[in-house]
Amino acid sequence: MSSVLAHRPNVLPSRFAWLMGLYAENFHRLARLFAPLDLALGSYRSGLDDGLDVRLDVLERQRYTLDLRLSYEFVDATTGEPTPSAQLRVYLDAHMAEVLDLCADRRLVRAIGPLHPARDLFERRLRMSSFLNRWLEYLAEQGHSIGTLEVLRAEPCAG
Fold first, then answer.
1. Element of type H or E holding 45
2. What would the pLDDT profile of 5-14 be if each residue is shown by its tens digit?
3. How many CB atoms lie within 10 A of CB 111?
4. Backbone phi, then psi, for 65, in 5-degree steps?
């Protein structure tokens, strides 16, 4: 009996497996929310009647990746940049969405929770992905979807 207990497998995922799971979940949340794989390069707005329009920029499309920027359509008075804002890379073959950079403002942090400072790069990626996951869930709960998305500027498809 003790030999069985001594060799039991670890049932909890490793930190790396947890992060990869977040990347996959973020891909599926993003796909359900705005279907960015079907969008042309360009800028899109999802507007509800709450004054918090969401902007999705499809920046670059490669064979296996899609680069996006997700933000609200208001500018931080201090930085002059859209905030909150997330730079995303979607891996088409692996069905994963990675956060390359994230700038969160106080209003969103109050709504969905803080992004604490990270001790290392891995922890930073884990926190940014967790934040994106909560943000995408929040956007869906507010009613944003592919049905509320309108084209601001789209480039013609090559080919």
1. strand 42-46
2. 555 566 667 8
3. 12
4. -135, 160
